[in-house]
């Protein structure tokens, strides 16, 4: 017999603000009754190595050659990362040079490959009902998967697509699945990773049922996974600033898709309120998910061992390094209020001097450990080390290899270089 509690949870299968079941879409799978059962989609892709640790990183630049991603990851102390494999705004791109591939492979030996989650081009819509666009998108998906295969990268993440041109949402999901099946038949091994979206307009993937339908229709479900974007989930209707909203997302994901399919997260705060259906990322702690919401995310064991990739607005490397450290500092911090820019023990200091210290703290996160000044972040971390192993130590003992040598990291800013960054969603 079903308890009141489980009935309530099942009724919550469809998040609030769900507008996707109205009108012409009633003929689709989304008209599922609230109490429908969801048979397992199967074991999913093979499990990633288990360490019980969090691997926080960011979307980084591959400008100048794909091999540069490792230096760029090191510059911000990233323990995982995403990048574009090619220009994401052009249909035609040059293949990798042999030299860059050799250099990439050499450097990749020191980084666990499942913690690298490349992001697909924004041009691609493998669910399009327009034949020309669909064919170009399918060709591009094959090309991108081919690049991953060439480099030995096991995953490729992209936005599922959108149903422009008059097709129903369900038909669009079927087209996406067919595109994946075609790509699978042309490129071996690489796992396609579908990203959840905001329920904005015609985009597919804001409702977990849509991702489920796509996965159901993929012939080889060991080669399909999901990347959970926190900003997108918040905007789709799961209020991640609250415990109920977070639990609702977890419960729905488990029932509708299954955590065996989760291959990574995009950790973003949101400029907009829950259910706004707008894809605008905010820096960690500055948006509507907030630090409390981020604490829940960073302390969820279901997110262990996966790439946790920042796609927050980029300012400079130091900004990303600070956000990574901030997120790592939230682990096991249930009783600890984290204010990374607060300066403790500076009583009597003039306002300007305090501001200067704040700025110094921000820039020092990449300075070799023995040389940097103490910041409030250090103090908070030391407190936590008494309770548990710190994230920094975690990174020194990854299951496969050392992802990045934290102590040698220097920011690009410190090296006096400026590099171009392109935002990912
Ligand atoms: Zn994302």
Defining traits:
two-stranded antiparallel ribbon; 9 strands; single chain; 7-stranded parallel β-sheet; TIM Barrel; binds zinc ion; disordered N terminus; globular; 35% helix; 425 residues; alpha/beta
CATH class call: Alpha Beta
Termini separation (Å)? 43 Å
The secondary structure category is alpha/beta
Number of strands: 9
Order of helices and strands: HEHEHHEHEHEHHEEEHEHHHH
Small molecules (ligands, ions, cofactors) in the structure: zinc ion
3D architecture notes:
- This protein is α/β, with parallel strands linked by helices.
- It has a single domain, classed as Divalent-metal-dependent TIM barrel enzymes (TIM Barrel, Alpha-Beta Barrel).
- The protein is 35% helix and 8% strand.
- It has 13 helices and nine strands.
- The strands form two sheets. Strands 2-1-9-6-5-4-3 form a seven-stranded parallel beta sheet.
- Strand 1, helix 2 and strand 2 form a beta-alpha-beta unit.
- Helix 5 packs across helix 6.
- The longest helix has 21 residues.
- It is globular, with a radius of gyration of 21 Å.
- The N terminus and C terminus are likely disordered.
- Bound molecules: zinc ion.
- Zinc ion binds next to loops.
